[in-house]
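Listing 4. Sequential folding, example run.
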Amino acid sequence: MSSIQNLSSADPFAEDSGLGGDSSVQYIHIRIFQRSGRKALTTIENLPKNIDFKKILKYFKKTYCCNGSILNENELIGNVIQLQGDHRKEAAQFLIDEKIVPKNNVKIHGF
């Protein structure tokens, strides 16, 4: 009988992937949460603290024709931008185009 190894499951939301990478990199997490039916919320976490959250939220609301808010979470996460609807790709593209974060520091989660 051959020996079978137990495969350990990895947490997909964990910061360190265990591949020997730099664990001090700040990733921007863009997530979607399903509300009810076709309704959804998009959250953007771990944005740099030196940016103007109100201006970015105002741009998102005007450009994507949605409502949104700024949530003040605990000290580890910081401020979180919350938008109504699924705007993961558009928000990520905006953050990369405006050079707020590098492309390899943006992680999109969901579906």
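-- end of first protein; second protein begins --
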Amino acid sequence: MPKVRIMGLDPGLHRMGWGVIDCEGTRLSHVAHGVIITHASEGMGIRLMKLHEEVARIIAGLNPGAIAVEQAFVFKDPLAALKLGHARAVAILAAAQAGLEIAEYAPNHIKKSVVGVGHAGKEQVQAMVKRLLPACGVEQADAADALAAAIAHASLAGTRAKILAALS
């Protein structure tokens, strides 16, 4: 099975987590991860531009073939949901401009794929990411969530490949 490089994103306007893994069959390996930070004092336009530029720079530098983006999980604050939507949009735009396959997953789907429980806490997700990718040493929850999105996509891609193989 060919090696596939997957980028995961945990969108946020203030903190956007990102992580990149390689998937070869069932073997996962850590490539890189980090958090893009913007500040409210920069103004909305500058913040969105910075997110777009950083995501585009990471894509160009690490050359993933697919991107997995966590879908928005909205509580009761419509303004926060709108800001999160803006951040997601610029990240997805950067991926589309690079010609990447774009997948979006609900937070519960990602947690279930990585931890086995859809309502797992951030600490559980981070611990399981460290276990699945021992070399990553991830300490930031946003980056761990992004790596978890990439792992969830790799898991789904493996399942899809098995189904296609069985059908042919």
